[in-house]
Specification:
Layout (H helix, E strand, L loop, with lengths): L4 E8 L5 E8 L9 E10 L1 H8 L10 E2 L3 E9 L9 E5 L14 E4 L5 E2 L6 H24 L3 H4 L2 E4 L4 H12 L4 E5 L5 H7 L1 E6 L15 E6 L3 H10 E9 L13 H6 L2 E4 L7 H14 L2 H6 L1 E5 L3 H9 L6 E5 L2
Bound molecules: NADPH dihydro-nicotinamide-adenine-dinucleotide phosphate.
NADPH dihydro-nicotinamide-adenine-dinucleotide phosphate binds next to helix 1, helix 2 and helix 4.
Length: about 325
């Protein structure tokens, strides 16, 4: 087995700030969890951007290997649940926060974090989906579980549309028959968003100013990855009995809103967490992805990059300049 291999490690810099650097490590540097996996692919998520660039405190201890998504093959296992040769994926479970993460050729993992690679996807496709896609699927499930209102009642809004969660949400919602409106700050991406299934594109500036707590009813549901005033305005524009799935904070973690949409229109704010979601929810999300995601759309929203590009890509995703999804090839 390879003596040393590259890993993206979050550590304190000279000024005491945590950020990411590529370093050579060995198997002795990995935690003592029972399942050793050789990782072939990972992916870039907003959270990875924050961790590597140092723009957000993601790692709660250092040094720690970054990366929240992985796909690979089991090499050795002290757990009866897994054997050498099994193809697996991991999304979340504290990787890169409290647990050693995915940007490394080998990783040792707890058996309960592993999911079999869904048969519908290759390792590269599963990472093109990654946490962003699996989160979008959790959001779609949450909206559908809220009630069967959405199809009957009109438009579903997706904010942060050209990002990873947004691109995946548009593809899934349009494949399931909803009329999707995409909110983006990038006018140059309208053709891309229409190709994923958006029926209409609007400018995200429509949501950026604090406005009235109840506005004209525009949406029967929404998937929001932006938070802050955007989410407050989306809630204020959601129609009677509708629901908004809140996934992210790309525009801020605050929520300058009132209870009026909730108590006067019965609007639901559905919280979406991918990191600690239980296995049955994960399975439902991956089943939805297997059934509703078109391979050509997935390919059109994905590019592939080597691990050495992570520092530059981290800055790009935090600045909102990454379109769709980036698969990271682990060399
Ligand atoms: P991306 O960077 O790929 O997408 C975020 C998008 O948000 C951008 O592409 C941009 O879309 C929009 N955006 C960025 N900055 C701003 C801003 N200041 N104001 C308004 N819109 C902005 O990230 P991901 O899709 O990977 O993640 C999206 C969010 O979801 C992140 O906050 C992430 O932390 C969160 N997340 C949460 C998960 C959970 O478990 N709840 C799991 C995965 C992600 P455009 O250019 O189209 O306007």
């Amino acid at each position: 087995m390879t003596e040393s291999f590259a890993a993206m490690i979050i550590d304190q810099d000279e000024a005491g700030r945590p950020n990411g650097r590529l370093r050579e490590i060995t198997l002795a540097d990995l935690p003592d969890h029972p399942v050793l996996v050789e990782i072939s692919h990972s992916s870039l998520n907003y959270k990875d951007g924050l961790a590597i660039s140092g723009k957000g405190r993601i790692a709660r201890r250092t040094p720690l290997i970054a990366g929240i998504d992985l796909a690979g093959v089991v090499v050795e296992s002290r757990s009866p649940e897994w054997k050498a040769g099994d193809k697996v994926i991991v999304n979340g479970w504290g990787l890169s926060e409290t647990e050693s993460g995915a940007f490394t050729r080998f990783q040792r993992l707890k058996p309960e974090w592993l999911t079999p690679l869904p048969s519908a996807f290759s390792a590269e496709q599963a990472m093109a989906i990654g946490t962003a896609g699996y989160t979008a699927a959790l959001a779609v499930l949450a909206l559908e579980d809220w009630g069967n209102l959405i199809k009957a009642r009109g438009d579903v809004l997706v904010t942060g549309a050209a990002g990873g969660v947004g691109s995946m949400a548009i593809s899934l919602l349009s494949a399931r028959g909803y009329r999707v409106v995409a909110s983006t700050g990038r006018a140059g991406e309208h053709d891309y968003l229409r190709s994923l299934g958006a029926a209409e594109c609007i400018d995200r500036s429509e949501f950026s100013a604090v406005s009235r707590p109840l506005q004209a009813e525009r949406w029967s549901g929404a998937v929001d990855s932006v938070g802050s005033t955007t989410l407050a305005n989306v809630l204020a524009q959601t129609g009677y009995g509708g629901a908004v799935a809140a996934c992210g904070l790309a525009g801020g973690s605050d929520l300058p809103a009132t209870v009026l949409p909730h108590i006067l229109r019965g609007v639901a704010l559905l919280g979406i967490d991918s990191v600690m979601a239980p296995p049955d929810k994960r399975q439902r999300a991956w089943d939805l992805l297997s059934g509703s995601l078109e391979a050509e759309k997935l390919a059109s929203m994905t590019c592939v990059a080597p691990m050495r590009d992570l520092p530059v890509l981290a800055e790009e995703i935090v600045a909102g300049r990454v379109r769709g999804r980036v698969v990271i090839e682990i060399a």
